[in-house]
# Entry
Amino acid sequence: MKRTLVLLAVGMLLGAGFYLRFYELDQKPMHTDEAVNGVMIHQMLAGESVAFDPSHYHGPLLRYLAIPVVKLADLVTGSGLTEKSLRLLTALAGGAIVLMFLGYKGLIGQKAAYIAAGFAAVSPPLIYYSRYFIHESIFVLCSLIFLKQLWRFWLERSWKHAIWAGLWLGVLHAIRETVVLVLFAAAVGLIVSMGREWQKHFKWLLSKDGLSKVGVILLSGALVSIVFYSAFFTYFQGVIDSVLTYFIYEKDLAHDKPWYYYIGLIVGEKSRVGYLGQVWILVLALAAFWRLLVDRKTDPERLACFRFIAGYTIATTVLYSAIAYKTPWLMLNFLVGWVLLAGMGWSFLWIRFSQVAVRIVLVVAVAFCFVNSLRQSSLLNFRFSADPRNPFVYSHTSPDLVKLVDRIELLAGLDSEGKRMRIDIAGTEYWPLPWYLRDFARVGYWSELPADSDAKIRLFSFEGEETVPELDPSAYTSELRGLRDGVFVLIFIENELWEKQFEDKL
# Structure
C-alpha cells in the first residue's frame, strides 16, 4: 500500500510536469534565438543547405533532430512548420530529462531519484526553457546521459562503456561547443570521487589499459562529432569550423553579468507575481554535503558516486558563474546537478532520522516545495510567459509583435500581389520578424529604409533614444508596435492599402 501511494504521488508529479511542458507550446511568441533556429529549419525543409557558422551558431545536431520531428508533426496534424512543431522536440527533451533522473536510481538510490525527478518535473526553469526551441534542453539531457555512462565506465572500465561514453561525448559536441565545460567538470568530479585512493586510480589512468580506453572515448566522440559537423561527410569545412568557433565566436557584451547572477535566479526573490525561486534545492543540497563530509557511514557504497556528482556540480557552477557572458538558460547545465544533490540530501535525512515526527516534517516540507513549484511553473509559463517581470524572460519578443504580423498578413490578403508584395525592414533589432515573415517572397532587410523603394509596407526598428525616419503622411499611415522590452517597430503602410481594410465595412 505504501509503495503504491509513493508511485502514485511520483506519477502525478511526472504527469503534471509533462503536461506543463507540452500544453499550448505556441502560447508565447518566438524568441530571437528560436527564430534563428526556426528559419534554418525552414530553409532546410525547402531544400537549401545551411552551413555551420562558427562565429554565430551552435552545433548542427538540433537542426538534424528537429527535421524528423517537424515532419512527423506535420504528417499527424497537417499544420506544417509552426512554433508548436518546432518546440515539440525540446519539450520531448525536457520530459526525457525528468525520466533520466529516475534512471539515476541505481547510482543515488531510489528515494533520492524519486525526489530529484519530482523537483525536475515541476522546476520552473527546466519547464520554461524546454518550451524554447533552443539547444539547452537537449544539451542538458545528453549531459546527464553522458555522465551516467562515464561513471559506469569508471566503475567497470570496460571497452563497451568507453565507447558509449565517447559516443555521447560526441553528441554533446555536435549540440554545443560548451561540451568542453562538461568534460572539464566531469574530470573534476572523477578526481573528487577518488578520495584517498587517488594514487591507485591515477596509476590505472596512466597505464596502457587506462590510456587506451580514454583514447577510445575521445576517438569515438570525435567520429560522432565529425559525422554531424561535416553534414554527413559532405562539408568538411564544418569540422574545421567546429574548432575555430572557440576562437572567433562573437559575444555580445550586453550579456555580461556578475558572478552571482545564476545563484540569484535559483534563490529567487519576492516579486509582484509572488515568490519566484527554488531555494529549497540548495538547502537540501547542503544535507547532501553534510553526508559527504561528516556522516560517511550512511550508504557508504554510493559515497564515490555522490562525490562525483558533487564535484561535477560545483565545477559547473563555478565555471558558468566565472564566465562573464550569461543567459538564464545556461543555468540549467548545473541546476540539474543541484537537483540531484537535493534528492540525495532529502534521502539522507530520511535515512538518518527515523523518528516519526521528523519524517512527517520531511514529507510535508517536500510536498510544499512541489506544490509551490507547480504554482510558479503555471504562472511563469502561461500567465507571465512573455512578461518582463518573469525572471526567465530574457530579451523576449513582445506579444505586440504578433499583432503586427497579423496586420501584415491581413494587408497581404487585401493586396493584388499577396505574399509577393515587397516589404522593407530596417534597423538592427528586427528578429524574430524573418521567422514570422518566412512565407513572404520579397522581404528586404536594410540598415536604412531605401528611398527609392516601391514597398507598400515598411518597418523600422529602434530603441528609445534613436532618431526614426519620417515618411510623407499623405502617402503612408504609421503605427507603433513593441518588438521587445525597450525596442520598438514603426510600421509605414501605403494609404491605398491601409484604406482597403475598411472598404467592406463602409
